[in-house]
Amino acid sequence: MSYQKIKGTQDFFGIEKQKFAFIEQTAKNVSKRWGFFEMDTPIFEATELFNRSVGDETDIVKKEMYTFLDKGDRSITLRPEGTASVTRAVVENKLYASTNPLKLSYFGPMFRYERPQAGRLRQFTQFGVEVFGVESANLDADLIYMAVETFREMGIKSMTVKINTLGDDRSKEAYQEALRVYFSTKVGSMCKDCQERIVKNPLRILDCKIDAKGEEIANAPKMSDYLSFESKAYLKKIVDLLEQLDVNVEVDQTLVRGLDYYTSTVFEIIVESESPGMKDLVLCGGGRYNGLSKDLGGPELKAIGYAFGVERVMIALDEKNTWNDFNASTDFAILAMDDESKTESIKLANLLRKCGKTVELDYVNTTLKPQFKLSERINAKTVLLIGEEERRNRTITWKGKNIVENSNNLPQEMFRNDQQTISMEQFFKRLRIYTRTKRWMEKNPKAYANYLLMRKE
């Protein structure tokens, strides 16, 4: 019987894993410069946490969550997003008492039972950031700029920030009532979900994927007509700041985001697709959720955050073809010409590894041809040869990358004039690690008693 990965999941290996790691490291490096600290939360939580925070009328809760009963008959859900779990952790552990603002980042797998397609997997990896304790247009703009800068450092230079505000509580309530009245005569011709949303949360209708292009939503009342002066001024300040930071920003009055906990500022980062017939790609989304901590049993904390899916960003970078060169090369390949030299090559390899060098060697062959093939396969920058003569004289033969060009030729034809045989002392001085290596050997006389690199016997 053969086994295959579950539909909607993905294996990462080779170059794809290097791409994945590049996105992760870039996001973490940028967030660190902005003062964020990493945290981890459990992959599964009590189901009620997501019902309460994400909203029981959202598609995520109604259709997409992986929920099961554990052996204690408790309803457990694999986390579909990160904000609810991070907020639960902040409230439960009283992290808000330690610093203000509290800046946290996370990276890990999320789970949603969606129809698998490009950029949408049932297990996907999300990077996100959350800030607790402060409400300020300056913070909102700086956080959005941080997301833009993250994608710029990944290689995406052209993107648009779409932004909107849901206003303060009074503005939001007035707008919801206007939507309820407006859609009451039109919802009969719309999808079943919209017919249910009009009662509990008419804002969700604006986020409908089925009726998104219909006239009913296009002609719906606009949030701007119900905003207080303070909410309008708050949004304008964010937009002005982003424009001063050279960010392409667009106010989109239909943008509400798909989760119930959002309040005030909401935004998405869009990149144009270069593939014919493909929709623009939403790289990232986020916004304010000032009431969520109180809903989860804690104090009311002003909060804002954003998140993006790694796999979706990989698609965007593939389209833009802006990846770094991932054909990573190995610093050294060590070739040994007899069994005793194999032992010496392992000792040397581990000295070099302690110095931060990447080293590979052939553990089996003593003939040169297969060992040269290994050095080509791993794209070694430098080839080192150890044989009887090198062991006797405490030297090493150094061969630059340009020497190993054609492994199909006889090994002796690979030896050219730019090959050098140098003393081990010269070798380590050339690498500028002579002092470090000598110090290690002095501290570990047993480990290197038979391998005196710095002097002849």
Descriptive key words:
457 residues, alpha+beta, BirA Bifunctional Protein, domain 2, Rossmann fold, 2 domains, eight-stranded mixed sheet, 16 helices, 16 strands, disordered C terminus
Structure description:
With 457 residues, the chain is an alpha+beta fold. The chain folds into two domains: 14-168 and 228-320, BirA Bifunctional Protein, domain 2 (2-Layer Sandwich), CATH 3.30.930; 332-443, Anticodon-binding domain (Rossmann fold). The chain is 37% helix and 19% strand. It has helices at 14-33, 47-53, 59-64, 83-92, 137-154, 169-183, 192-200, 215-218, 229-244, 292-295, 310-320, 339-354, 368-377, 388-393, 424-430, 434-443; strands spanning 37-38, 44-46, 67-69, 75-78, 102-111, 123-132, 160-165, 249-251, 263-271, 281-288, 303-309, 332-336, 359-361, 382-386, 395-400, 420-423. A hairpin with a 5-residue loop joins strand 3 and strand 4 (75-78). The chain is elongated and about 95 Å long. The termini are far apart. Residues 402-417 and 448-457 have low confidence and may be disordered.
